[in-house]
UniProtKB/TrEMBL annotation:
<protein>
    <recommendedName>
        <fullName>Biosynthetic peptidoglycan transglycosylase</fullName>
        <ecNumber>2.4.99.28</ecNumber>
    </recommendedName>
</protein>
<keyword id="KW-0472">Membrane</keyword>
<keyword id="KW-0328">Glycosyltransferase</keyword>
<keyword id="KW-0997">Cell inner membrane</keyword>
<dbReference type="Pfam" id="PF00912">
    <property type="entry name" value="Transgly"/>
</dbReference>
<keyword id="KW-0961">Cell wall biogenesis/degradation</keyword>
<comment type="function">
    <text>Peptidoglycan polymerase that catalyzes glycan chain elongation from lipid-linked precursors.</text>
</comment>
<dbReference type="InterPro" id="IPR036950">
    <property type="entry name" value="PBP_transglycosylase"/>
</dbReference>
<comment type="similarity">
    <text>Belongs to the glycosyltransferase 51 family.</text>
</comment>
<dbReference type="InterPro" id="IPR023346">
    <property type="entry name" value="Lysozyme-like_dom_sf"/>
</dbReference>
<feature type="domain" description="Glycosyl transferase family 51">
    <location>
        <begin position="58"/>
        <end position="225"/>
    </location>
</feature>
<keyword id="KW-1133">Transmembrane helix</keyword>
<keyword id="KW-0573">Peptidoglycan synthesis</keyword>
<keyword id="KW-0812">Transmembrane</keyword>
<dbReference type="InterPro" id="IPR001264">
    <property type="entry name" value="Glyco_trans_51"/>
</dbReference>
<comment type="pathway">
    <text>Cell wall biogenesis; peptidoglycan biosynthesis.</text>
</comment>
<keyword id="KW-1003">Cell membrane</keyword>
Length: 231
């Protein structure tokens, strides 16, 4: 009996303890970021590693700017394009996730996540870009931690400062300078809409800026921007 208990401890107790410690680590990091800005994210470090495999001295384009130094046009465009119920949901849009699940079932693999802005931030901060239901589960836990510890404005501020916007380009300020030679604060409606549309496939659109889809989708987002509610 003693041997069985010891075996259960190593097979069940230790892995469970490690999972709980990992969640505690995530929570402490999030609590720190309520007051202090993250200098990098898991996803940023992964992408830097990829770039440095080809060019050892490669660096990311990234510069943090406060919420009030980011154009409201960009905030509205991103919400309209990525998560139009951002200010209302608790971190997860279950209807969007259900649609994504049904799409994945038809395709026979994970091709869509139905992620909100908060979920995308959770993934960028801590996780890999690998698609799996296990990763999605961890993403949900981190998402609720973010929504519990931070208000919507802080979540959006961090998201806009760390999200990928091109090859080695992260955050609104770097994106504005990379594509328009201006600051994030001075982005106009058309520029903001175009940047928002790039978010699902930023590296692709960085290399294909003349894409017809990019132009058509940007025009649609411009029409939706005025109805996007800011936190």
């Amino acid at each position: 009996m003693k041997m069985l208990r010891r075996l259960l401890f190593w097979l069940v107790g230790v892995p469970l303890l490690l999972v709980l410690l990992l969640q505690l680590y995530f929570l402490l990091q999030i609590l720190w970021w309520t007051q202090f800005n993250p200098s990098s994210t898991s996803f940023m470090r992964q992408q830097l590693s990829v770039l440095q495999e080809k060019k050892p001295d490669a660096k990311l384009q990234h510069q943090w700017v406060p919420y009030n130094k980011i154009s409201n046009h960009l905030k509205r465009a991103v919400i309209a394009s990525e998560d139009d119920s951002f200010v209302d949901h608790d971190g997860v849009d279950w209807e969007a996730m259900q649609k994504a699940y049904e799409k994945n079932q038809k395709k026979g693999k994970v091709v869509s996540g139905g992620s909100t802005i908060t979920q995308q931030l959770a993934k960028n901060l801590f996780l890999s870009g690998q698609r799996s239901y296990l990763r999605k589960g961890q993403e949900l836990v981190i998402t609720y931690m973010l929504e519990t510890c931070m208000d919507k404005q802080r979540i959006l501020e961090i998201y806009l400062n760390v999200v990928e916007w091109g090859v080695g380009v992260f955050g609104a300020e770097a994106a504005a300078r990379h594509y328009y030679g201006s600051s994030a604060a001075t982005l106009g409606p058309a520029q903001a809409a175009r940047l928002a549309v790039m978010l699902p496939k930023p590296r692709y659109f960085d290399k294909n800026q003349g894409s017809g889809y990019l132009q058509r989708r940007s025009e649609l987002i411009m029409k939706r921007m005025n109805s996007a509610e800011l936190p």
